[in-house]
Design a protein that fits this description.
Rossmann fold; alpha/beta; five-stranded antiparallel beta sheet; 475 residues; 19% strand; seven-stranded mixed beta sheet
């Protein structure tokens, strides 16, 4: 029975994903089921398949369902001590570590109706001053709920929503209208709202401070780990992550280290890039096997290269051929050590021997563009590059690479064809414009002739009226 219930919930979540692009599969299952059941009870529907029908008939119900699933509970200066740590310690450290005119990029993820990013703005403006804040700070506020984002963009809040804002901040940063308090427009321009799904969408990069409070707790542990890896990528080397009270990061010490654990403020842990660790291992003189490791890595990297490549020694003997080249030219183990003139690749797809002679004399790279190879139905286009390998000024060997440019050539041909068609269309348009101008001139000339005729008729009419008056006078 439980499996059947799960299947119906899965069908509902899949329908929501296909219909509106919201993916709730990473959210905690128990929470999703509880909130869906709550919403179904409110519209008096018992089964998920019936609720899918209800959503299809009532498009406005999607917004109600999303509001129930996403909760969107937020407030200004929620957990005041955490914001005090940010203002007293974190922001001054961030500013001190950067040039005085460098930009600051902040990401408020899961911003709901905007209270959190506007709180961040107030904290930074208080520390930096309004002018420096406007000049340097950009706050990217994101959420999956478009309705909440629309509310956030207006920056207008009811009296009950601003109760937790300190009195001096309220007077400094808000303007009161008849029924609402509106965040100052000049500072609001620094806050950019947009939709971003933390599970599916790419993270914003080069972030100095990332604020995501009481959002991760709605996701499964696996999804939380995925999101935290994205946050780690998003932050600059000394970037700071600020989470909510319920989010500890106990199992992610490799990504973030606490600045103030009680307030859930963390700093990004720098990782040594994998390629740097490999390089150190390969060239560490203290490692007896270092040269072997380095050679193996170089040979493996050469062999799996995407383009075909062969290497000849100074006398033109085949020394190496990567996997792509072996497939392309049908080379086997027995071909290693053979002179290139004995191999098919010396003349197919292009004659190489004369180019090799030129290269050995001039010791400069040679490129042969747009060489066609393969049968007509499978024809490919490659650029061939011969590069001298020199040591102590002399020729040590030659690297010959074959870059497949078939798709690029097709694209170039399409661009050329489109350009010709565009030029032809432009010529036709120009002709049409010229014809229209000619027609317009003719119409204008006709109009002038009509005006002249009209004037002549009017003059004739006046003469007739004069003659008529004279005749009446004679009678």
């Amino acid at each position: 029975m439980a499996a059947r219930a799960d299947a119906t919930i899965d069908a509902l979540l899949d329908f929501v994903k296909q219909s509106r692009g919201f993916d709730f599969t990473g959210y905690k299952r128990s929470s999703i089921e509880r909130r869906v059941s709550k919403r179904m009870a409110e519209v008096e529907v018992d089964r998920c398949d019936e609720y899918i029908d209800y959503l299809q008939l009532n498009s406005g119900e999607f917004a109600e369902l999303f509001n129930t699933l996403l909760i969107n509970t937020t407030a200004f200066f929620r957990d005041p001590q955490a914001w005090k740590i940010l203002a007293d310690d974190v922001v001054p450290q961030l500013l001190a570590a950067r040039p005085p005119d460098s930009p600051l990029r902040i990401w408020s993820a899961g911003c709901a109706s905007g209270e959190e990013p506007y709180t961040v703005a107030m904290v930074f403006a208080r520390v930096m001053g309004d002018v420096a804040f406007r000049d340097r700070v950009k706050i990217y506020a994101t959420d999956v709920d478009e309705e909440a984002l629309d509310q956030a963009r207006h920056g207008a809040y009811l009296p009950r929503q601003i109760e937790d804002i300190p009195r001096d901040a309220l007077e400094r940063f808000f303007e009161q209208t008849d029924q609402r308090f509106v965040f100052r427009k000049d500072l609001r321009r620094c806050v950019i709202f947009g939709r971003n799904d933390l599970v599916q969408d790419a993270p914003i990069s080069h972030i100095d401070l990332l604020v995501c409070r009481n959002t991760l707790m709605y996701f499964t542990a696996e999804t939380q780990a995925q999101i935290l890896r994205r946050f780690h990528f998003a932050l600059d080397d000394d970037g700071v992550l600020m989470l909510g009270k319920s989010e500890m990061l106990i199992t992610h010490a490799d990504l973030f280290t606490p600045i103030e654990l009680k307030s859930r403020v963390f700093r990004k842990v720098m990782r040594v890039a994998r390629r740097e660790r490999t390089r150190v291992l390969a060239f560490d003189p203290g490692n007896g096997a270092s040269q072997t490791v380095g050679e193996t890595l170089r040979e493996t990297a050469f062999d799996i290269g995407s383009g075909a490549q062969v290497v000849l020694d100074a006398s033109g003997v085949l020394v190496m051929a990567n996997e792509t080249a072996r497939r392309m030219f049908g080379l086997g183990v027995s071909d290693s050590g053979r002179p290139i003139q004995d191999l098919e690749l010396s003349y197919r797809p292009v004659e190489l021997r004369s180019h090799l002679d030129t290269l050995s004399k001039e010791l400069r790279p040679i490129e042969i563009k747009s060489v066609r190879t393969g049968a007509a139905d499978r024809e490919r286009v490659v650029d061939v590059r011969l590069t001298p390998l020199r040591s102590d000024g002399g020729l040590m060997g030659t690297s010959i690479s074959y870059l497949d440019v078939t798709e690029a050539r097709k694209l170039q041909d399409e661009v050329t064809r489109s350009k010709r068609e565009l030029e032809h269309a432009y010529e036709e348009l120009q002709t049409t414009v010229e014809e229209l101008e000619t027609t317009n001139e003719e119409l204008q000339s006709t109009n002038e002739e009509l005006e002249t005729t009209n004037e002549e008729l009017q003059s004739t009419n006046e003469e007739l009226e004069t003659m008529n008056e004279e005749l009446q006078s004679s009678n």
